[in-house]
Amino acid sequence: MSLELQPEATSAVDLPRLNRSLRPAAKAPVRIVHLGLGAFSRSHQAWYTHQASDAADWGIAAFTGRRPDAALALAEQDGLFTVVERADDGDSFAVVGSIVEAVDGADVPRLVELVSAPATAVITLTITEAAYRIGSDGHLDRTASDVAADLALLASGSGNPTTPLGRLVLALAARRAAGAGPLAVVCCDNLSNNGTVARKALAGFADAWDAGLAEWIDANISFVSTSVDRITPRTTDADLAAVEAACGYRDNSPVVAEPFSNWVLSGDFPAGRPRWEDAGAVFVADIEPYENRKLWLLNGAHSLLAYAGQLRGHTTVAQALADPLCLQAVERFWDEAEANLPAADLQIPAYRAALLARFSNARIAHHLAQIAMDGSTKLRMRAVPVLQAERAAGRTGAGAALMIAAWMDFTASGNTLQDPLAGTIAAANQLTGPERTQALLSLLDPVLVQDHSVIELVEKLRGSF
Ligand code: CS2
Question: Check: CATH 1.10.260.40 for 289-461?
Answer without folding.
Answer: no
